[in-house]
Structure formats: C-alpha cells, structure tokens
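Please produce the structure of this protein holding pyridoxal-5'-phosphate.
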Amino acid sequence: MIYLDYQATTPVAPQVAEAMQPWIEDKFANPHSPSRWGHESAAAIEVARKQVEKALGLKGGSVAFTGSATEALNWALKGTVEKAPKGRNRIVTLATEHAAVLDTCEWLAAQGVDLTVLPVGANGRLDLDLFARELDDRVLVVAVMMVNNEIGVTQPISEIARMAHEAGALMLCDAVQAFGRMEVSNEPDLVAISAHKIHGPKGVGALWMRKGQEPAPFIHGGGQEQGLRSGTLSPALCVGFGAAARLADERCTRDYDHVQKLWKAAVHALGPGWTINGCTECRYHGNLNIRRDGVDAARLLADLRDIAFSLGSACASGSGRPSHVLRALGLDYREARSSIRLGFGRYTTQQELVDACHRLARAAREQEKLDA
Ligand code: PLP
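Below is the modeled complex.
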C-alpha cells in the first residue's frame, strides 16, 4: 500500500512505539496512586508534558492532556462559555473549521450562544477586513484553525489573535495539523493538538492554556490535571505523545525540507489538467487537494485500492456528504466530487509518491476516454 492520507492520521514513529512499550507491559501502575510505582508513572507523564510543551514552544501557559483534540476543542469552547464575563456571549469562527469546532459551536448556539460563522475567500483564507467588521464587545472567543485539514490552507493566526484581543475576546486555535510541522503562533490563549497527527498514538490530545484563561472543567471526577480534566491518564499514551513531540521538534527542518521536495515532485508527476483547491502559497505543502474536470474521484479510489488517499468530496466522517470546506471555497457539487486529497510526510518516499501520482493521472485519463 502507498499511504497518502497523512491528514487523517500519521504512521506511528518506531521511536514512539519503543518508548511506549514498557508502559503498556510492565509499568502499569496508576499514575495518580501514591505508591512508588505510581510516582514513577506520574514522573513519566510530567516528562512527556514538558516534551510536548517544548515542541509547542508557547510561553505563559501549560498543557493538559485530553483523550483527543476533539475533546480539547469541546472543552475549550464549552468551558470558556461557562466562565464568560457578563455581556460576552458571542463566538466567531470560520466555515472551514473542523467538525469538532463547528458542531460544538452549533451545540452552544442551541443553548443560547450567539454564533457567527464567517465565510472564506475562494483561496480558503479569511478576509481580515470582514473579520474586523464582525468584532465587537460581545465577542467572547474567536476560534480559527492554523492549517486546514482538508485543503492545507493556513490562516494568519497571530493577526487574528491580536485583533480578537483588541476586542477583548479570547482566541482558540486548532493547531492539530500545524503542530510539529511549523511554528505555532504564540498569540492564542488556547491551543488544541493531537498526538496521532505527529506520528504518535491515537487516543491522546492536549489543550495548551494561557495562565489565567483556563476553561471551566468539562469532565468531572477525580480532579486530575490540576482539577481541570478528571480521568486517569494513560502513561503509555502520554509517553508516546511526548516522544512524538520530541522527535518532531528535533526533525522539524528535515521534515519540512522533505515535504517541500515531495510537493514539487507530486505536482510535476501529476502533470497538466489538475487544479489545486485552495491557496497554493499560504498552505502546508504536505497536503495536496486537487480536482480534475469530469473525474469521478470515488471511481479513482475504487480503481486504485492499494493507494490510500481521501476523497475531497466526502467529509471526515466518510458519510459521503459534500465537504463543507470545498463548498466554502465556492466549489459546486461536481467539482467537489472530482476532488481528491493526497497527504504525505516524513515516511513517504519520493519514488512511491511519484508512482502513485503517475497512476492517478493515468486512471483519470482513462476515465476521460471511457466517458468521451
Ligand atoms: N482538528 C483538526 C484540524 C483535525 O484534522 C482533527 C483530526 O482529524 C481534529 C481536530 C480532531 O483530532 P482528534 O482525532 O485528536 O480528535
């Protein structure tokens, strides 16, 4: 199989699997128990926390582990609304956010929060003038992701956060697709990340919180994570997250250069006839979301079963609904149905990517011939 679905998840790094091993087998003590073994587990979690914080590189706050970035985003939004100062009852977000943000905002809107979902341009970027016009003293939190998971387009997070702060609002950044790949802006107050997008294990995420801006607890119970997020932490998952973060930090430049080379090779190998969805410059280059007139992307997927890639037209849940992100760019149903997402990174070789792109281009041309 040629794996080109790095935005869905990334292969676990061998160093991560190795670091986790003892914590899956022998070292099973509850990190919150007072025994010597419990203390050892707790210490391993603290080392992992420091590794994640160092890789994230943000000043003035700390990380709490969660079960996923979805949980971190739910917590950030719901817990911030719970602590809202009087008169601030508005959330501003973008039409291209992940479902973990959009669905949580919709849920909060049903509870009485005033929700504004801003459109993006055809290139996937937020118009800052439009954003400025939307800001007022009722805005509690602005939620914008750094790198879009479907189209790879980046948003000017520092600028957005500064503008939100000027209006007295907080800024929540979904940095799931950015963390470990590019520098995360230090301006937001709350930042959500996930281990499995940086070659770590699934089932662990984190919320970075600026000191003083911690959301109200969302999961209640044993008072773990400074009383903010109850539930027994998994030393294996936290250690795996820490090891993945450390590796991403160490390899940052190498991984970045590799991705830049892969992008160029893929675009060249695909040849003419493809259009890139979203801004070509303001993006993470490990995400190539493309479309081709007249191509049925679902048929491409069926024809090329040994290449793992994503349909641009299907939302993350695989429901087959047209992607809300592609619709937000102004693509019609036909264009969305002819879109695919290729995601590549650290362990993708140039040769396998080029082979996959040649085969994709050939299969697309064959569809055109058959349909002619
Ligand atoms: N935000 C973005 C941008 C994502 O790509 C994802 C995962 O697909 C999430 C949030 C949710 O992350 P998790 O799988 O840790 O819940």
